[in-house]
Amino acid sequence: MQNKDKSGSQPACLDNMREKRRPLKAHQSESYLPLGSRHPCLSQGMDVKVSPKAHVFRTGSEPALSPTEIRRFSNEAHPAEALRGSDSQLCPRPPPKPSKAPSIKQSHSPLVWQSSEANYCELHPTPPEDCAWSDSYSSRNSYIEDQRTDDIESLSFSNSELSFPALDDSISQCSATNFCGNVEDNEFNRPVYETVSSFCPNDFQSVLLTAENKPLETALLRRAKELFTNNDPKTIAKHMLRMDCKVARILDVTPEVEKMMGVSSGLELLILPFGHQLRLDLMERHTTMAIGIAVDILGCTGNLEERVATLHKIIQLAVEVKALGDYFAFSAIMKALDMPQITRLEQTWTMLRHQYTHTAITYEKQLKPFSKYLHEGEALDTQEDLTVPLVMPLIALLERQSVIFEGMDFWENHDRGCEIMFNHLQTARQVAQYASVYRKNAERILEGFKPDELMSEIFKTEFQMRLLWGSKGALLKQSERYHKFGQILTALSRKLEPPS
């Protein structure tokens, strides 16, 4: 019987079925794999030894035919699942075409990786109890003999095909000793997740405050006003910078606190998850400072000239803290001046323009644009003179669910909201990166500075909390304190300049 007459289940040579296999490619475009090239016709007289063909596994129905995909073959494949070159049978039924739906994925074999383009996955080995692994869980120096490596030895990594010889016995013997010796030197201390605020108003030891005081006591307000008036803006700015650096843990960080934080600076702790309490404390200080400055202006219930003079000095203070690089205090002052209870005082601002024209121009043309520039996250290009960076937008992002804010944040009602938010997140990385630079700048500015005891006390957060809310009110919830004091500021503003 001739080959062309063979059909059906009768066997036929695979080399003579080229024409019959071509239509199969049209129906199974992805499952057609050539089984080999046809050998040239040899004369009968030539005695040529033909090497047997290698086994060709049928992988046409696998979805991972692309050269960029990872091909995995099981080590325990059944012979019936493959179409060998010496066989003369075709699969009785062609396998189904692979699904092109992205949700249907090929099951990954955990045994063999056959491609260098394999996806990276994290390995979580169970370390032994010995000190060698506890200090360095990397096995780059020596083989670690463990009973749990029996399963690992069954894996086959065919990507490199390299055989790694065992290291010298001397290295293996001393490796464990070196690891154990370095455990105490490089001991890792887990950072403490703080849950208690560093501000304790009732335990605050004060020279000006009594054991119990009422909110906004007249004697305390008058004494704080005298200290503020009798000192020049530059001296006041240095007192504010010193206290801000202490609260933000930039200066005067003890080894115990540094060990508890796990980092060397509070600016690094700010961006970490366990810096939650420090972020809340900085938010408390920032808002309390802004309210205190607003009270300083609205508390001038005398003539208009006194109120304008106070406003003039506060703007000068903003200029000085900006020059010192304390953007934390600068943003608190600008927040107070931008409060609706302050901006509505038209008579006060008009007289400021008449009596202190240069100060009014500085505020409108320099301070306000720079404050806007800061809150857009575009003012940290230079780190030379910066001591306390602006961290309030970052705190607003990280503590959105924990802190009550007044109104909407700057980026929430801005056309470039997403870009501004991204700028602040990018700024957070710079803050942590240049934390040591900020500390050196603050030390250089405060070198030789001798702070006044009473002046330092009125800029402590505990004193301001006791002054504004009293000994009992300082213990209330943050949202309740801010809401009530907002009503007090509104009443004071309307008393000074009644609405028309």
TrEMBL record:
Alphabetical list of SUPFAM superfamilies matching this protein: Ras GEF (SSF48366)
GO biological-process terms attached to the record: small GTPase-mediated signal transduction
Pfam families listed in its UniProt record: RasGEF (PF00617)
Keywords (A to Z) from UniProt: Guanine-nucleotide releasing factor
Disordered: annotated span: 1-46, 79-106
All residue ranges annotated as the Ras-GEF domain in the record: 232-499
Molecular function (Gene Ontology), one example: guanyl-nucleotide exchange factor activity
InterPro entries assigned: Ras_GEF_dom_sf (IPR023578), RASGEF_cat_dom (IPR001895), RASGEF_cat_dom_sf (IPR036964), SH2-Ras-GEF_adapter (IPR051853)
Protein name: Breast cancer anti-estrogen resistance protein 3 isoform X2
Organism: Xenopus tropicalis (Western clawed frog)
